[in-house]
Design brief:
The protein is of the alpha+beta class. Helix content is 35%, strand content 23%. The chain has helices spanning 3-17, 24-31, 35-47, 77-88, 96-108, 112-122, 141-149, and strands at 52-55, 61-64, 151-158, 164-177, 180-187, 192-197, 201-210.
Length: 234
């Protein structure tokens, strides 16, 4: 069994026995590998966002949070690749990290045969970019968390003149344009709605305060060069 198939099988084994635990030694015997290999594989799954938890000491072991994983999926290889293409386009967006973990969860929830076929098909999909093209600027993960949790965020922001200010912002929406990603929010420093380029956010810290309800449609004084179209989630 190659490593990719073993990772898939590990997830299925832990899902099947959850909430009971499996020790590294039991898993090593099950897949005929060393304990160290199991520990390395579990670490790779955890880094990819799979909710595998470890308890140390006597009676401990590994368990999987079934409420946060997907049961086996009947995605076709083509459907999985279509999802991968879409999620791949999320690079540089506020949800780039979540896109990577979501794709990993989808692939590991497919059957071993379909997952292998999807990876083979993905190897025949290529994106053309200029050799000197700059990589998309990453968006601070704190901004994603602030938007999802509806919490005030404190940012260090550099304006077009290169002047940095510290502001507390109530996040309302993310928008994407040709120039990159933007955070729309109520700026408490200026006392009005503002649009912030995410690549100009030098630092960000999540505050404990929840944001008041603000409707995006009520931000009527947005710049003329911005036209908003909501993401459709079917």
């Amino acid at each position: 069994m190659n490593r990719t198939d073993r990772l898939y099988a590990l997830v299925e084994e832990l899902r099947a026995c959850a909430p009971r635990r499996r020790t590294a030694r039991e898993l090593a015997a099950r897949f005929e590998v060393s304990v160290r290999t199991v520990e390395r594989d579990i670490g790779a799954l955890q880094q990819a966002g799979v909710p595998v938890y470890a308890d140390v000491g006597r009676g401990g072991g590994y368990t999987l949070d079934r409420s946060r994983t997907l049961p086996p999926l009947n995605f076709t290889p083509a459907e999985a690749v279509a999802v991968a293409i879409t999620l791949g386009r999320a690079e540089g967006s506020p949800f780039a990290r979540s896109a990577r973990t979501a794709l990993h969860k989808i692939v590991t929830a497919m059957s071993a045969a379909d997952g292998a076929a999807a990876r083979e098909l993905a190897g025949r999909i290529h994106f053309l970019t200029a050799p000197d093209a700059a990589a998309p600027a990453s968006v601070p993960a704190v901004l994603e968390e602030a938007m999802a949790a509806r919490r005030v965020v404190r940012i260090g922001y550099v304006d077009v003149a290169g002047i940095e200010t510290e502001r507390d912002v109530e996040p309302v929406a993310f928008t994407a344009g040709a120039g990159g990603w933007y955070l729309i929010g109520w700026c408490r420093l200026r006392g009005e709605a503002r649009v912030f380029r995410t690549d100009r956010v030098r630092r960000a810290a999540l505050l404990d305060e929840a944001v008041p309800d603000r409707d995006f449609d009520g931000f009527g004084d947005l710049p003329d060069w911005l036209e908003a179209r909501a993401l459709e989630f079917l």
